[in-house]
Write a structure and sequence with these properties.
Layout: H1 10-20, H2 25-45, E1 50-53, E2 57-59, H3 64-79, E3 85-88, H4 89-93, H5 102-105, E4 114-123, E5 126-135, E6 141-150, H6 166-170, H7 188-214, H8 235-250, H9 259-279
Parallel strand pairs: 1-3, 1-4, 2-4
Antiparallel strand pairs: 4-5, 5-6
Helix pairs in contact: 1-8, 2-3, 7-8, 7-9
């Protein structure tokens, strides 16, 4: 059987990945900027020049890290506007005298005219950030804004069982269209079924693996014999793989695989290469 070898360029793979992602890091950054722009515009419209930004609450789904990130992102974005004097409420609460009395300890001319309050919710793989600008005297909500982005710190999924049950996957298959099948014939159909079963569960791990690999110093595109993910035959699973690969590649500190996970995954991909060498990519 002829072997099919797919030679690829990393830039081509990443270009495809980025085009396939409807909600990647660029759109997430845009969502946060829209939220910040709404808060600054409302401040200007209401003559507010001093705001205090406190911690954002995490509402379910273990989003404490996401809430901290959202608060810092909002604070830094507001502080970039020269029209605003932005107070870090957490820093003021940490001053001697107690958390409850920080506002009274401030001179009147430095007290915030409004507070920025926020809540963060987990919605599947998405994170919803609700922020509002609240008048410090009346408690009136001046404006409420929302941003949506992908969760930055998704839990790494468990490594699926990568034992293909070698005997049934690799044993000779009787070819009903041949009078005398050769002993030791490779059963491509069974091997592909084994690959598909594992890839249905391992595409997230593969995306993390390749995102990290592409960032390694000295990584050469010429070392690739085919595009990462080209061995995934299910179109929907392949699409998910490319979306995650693009996202993880763009993240500064994405979750990484352990040495044991990498070893197990590379063993599986080695088996895949053997199947592709014998059967091509169908």
């Amino acid at each position: 059987m002829n072997k099919t070898i797919y030679r690829s360029c990393l830039s081509v793979a990443l270009a495809f990945c980025c085009a396939a992602v409807p909600g990647g890091s660029a759109s997430a950054a845009g969502e946060y900027q829209r939220l910040i722009d709404g808060l600054t515009a409302a401040s200007a419209d209401n003559g507010i020049t001093r705001v205090a930004v406190g911690a954002f609450s995490a509402s379910g789904g273990s989003v404490e890290d996401e809430a901290s990130f959202a608060a810092e992102k909002t604070l830094s974005g507001l502080a970039a506007d020269r029209r605003l004097q932005v107070l870090d409420q957490a820093a003021l609460e940490a001053q001697p005298g107690g958390k409850e009395g920080w506002l009274r300890r401030l001179p009147a001319k430095l007290r915030p005219q409004a507070f920025v309050r926020g809540s963060v919710f987990r919605d599947g793989e998405m994170v919803r950030v609700m922020a509002r600008l609240v008048d410090s005297v009346s408690g009136k909500v001046i404006v409420s804004m929302e941003a949506t982005s992908r969760a930055r710190n998704m839990e790494i999924p468990p490594v699926p069982d990568m034992d293909w049950n070698t005997a049934p996957a690799m044993t000779p298959a009787r070819d009903l269209f041949r009078d005398a099948p050769a002993d030791g014939e490779f059963d491509c159909s069974a091997a592909f079924r084994g690959m598909d079963r594992v890839n249905d569960k391992a595409f997230d791990l593969k995306a993390r693996y390749w995102a990290a690999k592409m960032k390694e110093p000295g990584f050469l595109t010429g070392s690739l014999t085919r595009n990462p993910g080209s061995e995934i035959r299910d179109p929907q699973v392949k699409q998910k793989f490319y979306e995650l690969l693009s996202r993880y590649h763009d993240e500064e500190n994405p979750p990484v695989l352990s040495e044991a996970q990498v070893k197990k995954l590379e063993e599986f991909m080695g088996k895949e290469s053997g199947v592709i060498d014998n059967c091509g990519i169908k």
